[in-house]
Design goal:
Two copies of one chain form a homodimer. The first copy, chain A, is mostly helical. In chain A, the strands form two sheets. In chain A, strands 1-2 form a two-stranded antiparallel sheet. In chain A, strands 3-4 form a two-stranded antiparallel sheet. In chain A, helix 1 packs across helix 3. Chains A and B meet through strand 1, helix 5 and helix 6 of A and strand 1, helix 5 and helix 6 of B.
Amino acid sequence: MRITAGDIIAIGPGKISLLEAIDETGSLTAGAKTLDMSYRRAWLLLDELNGSLKRPAVTSAKGGPEGGGSELTDVGRQLIELYRRIESTAVEACAEDLKQMLHLLAR
Amino acid sequence: MRITAGDIIAIGPGKISLLEAIDETGSLTAGAKTLDMSYRRAWLLLDELNGSLKRPAVTSAKGGPEGGGSELTDVGRQLIELYRRIESTAVEACAEDLKQMLHLLAR
């Protein structure tokens, strides 16, 4: 599930998984690694996410990515919670139609 | 909203809008044009979509893209209907959480 507002803002599985990985590992570098994501891609995703929010989802301690570690803000935690709840509510509400759609797919 | 099954199959707004545009215009070329999409991108999207389905969503008459025109199959129509219904059901079921998520976004 990917939430878009206009063409610009998108909250999707990549950004949410990244937030969860940062939360688990305490750093952007380590979080990216658990997702098999390059540091560069993770940094860009997070930069885009923070730029689309009123307040950032992650703060980094001084010392840079290697030195300081990263921590989720309240906004970051709220985003994860909302996204995961929206995902499960939507899947539940649409179960029958999703099943029919899966029947059309060759797998 | 984008529906993924594993990493490979994705039904999202681009493919569904393309099906709708082909249905309205009767051809891939004209459909792509109404979406400001290159013919090449439209062809690739449709090829990927057809490849992910048990039966194709669109059939093209002989004569190629310029000559023959394209038509939706029953599967194509079903996909549009299911996708649009899933979308509206999900938005309705998640209205409150989506509203809260939008509040976090800078717009």
